[in-house]
Amino acid sequence: MQNQQVMTAESVVSLYLIFQTPLEKIREAIAANLADSRMSSADLERIKIPAGGGTAWTIQTLNGEEMVKELNGIVVDWRDKRAYWSRPMEDSDGSAPPDCYSLDGRTGIGKPGGDCHNCPYSLYGSDPKGIGQACKASREFGLLREDKILPVILSLPPTSIKPARQYQMRLAAEVIPLYAALTTVGLERTKNSQGIAFSRATFTLAGRLTNEEAERIKEYAGMIRPLLESAPPALIATNSHQPEGEII
């Protein structure tokens, strides 16, 4: 079974543009197309969990939107974030920047700011509706797909953080860095305790990179990480409500 997986991984990896393009060419392309415009993660394509229990992802292509059952790629970076709005979504148009946000899931910037772990708004049940956290947690993956040299941002709501964390722990137990794994992200339909349907991300290992390929991805990740860290969520977060399904 393991040999079959390795063979499959080799055939898949051969399709990845990142392994067909010198890193210097990628640097040149970014510099030529963006110059000093200071591209940030807010400029990258963002993929979000569908509403209402949908089981297909919506992705943007040069020819418009496309629906896919699974996302396949290499996670080149990830981070936890938080965002808090003092005004309920019902009292705003949902586009206002958060009153407080965190770029690392640990330290809040704004009001109230400070240590996220000791903030009352991060406690489960602090949401005005009594479900979930008033300060919304999210986990973002920089996912490099086979036909791109720039990653997409996969934004996971609170209900998908636990399966993401469990997947990362399983990889760690097998001494597989996240950037050395070919990851498949699917969707499953489930319900919360109020019977409201929502979508939850699933994660499976599709294959492993060789040591040489993993080192190349590691170098690429170091090159692209400043871009992924450059935009505060105030520029990209929206106050959208996702059903809370579990404690994280």
Fraction of residues in H or I helices: 10-25%
User: What's the mean pLDDT score?
Assistant: 84
* Oligomerization category of the chains in this entry: single chain
Shape: globular
List segments where confidence is low: pLDDT < 50 over at least 5 consecutive residues.
Answer: 1-8
Per DSSP, what share of the residues sits in E-state strands of 2 or more residues?
25-35%
In total, the number of domains comes to: 1
The succession of helices and strands, N to C, reads HHEEEEEEEEEHEEH
Describe the structure.
- The chain is built from 4 helices and 11 strands.
- The two termini are 33 Å apart.
- It is globular, with a radius of gyration of 19 Å.
- It has one domain.
- It is an alpha+beta fold and 248 residues long.
- Strand 6 and strand 7 form a beta hairpin.
- The strands form 2 sheets. Strands 1, 4, 5, 6, 7, 8, 9, 10 and 11 form a 9-stranded mixed beta sheet that branches.
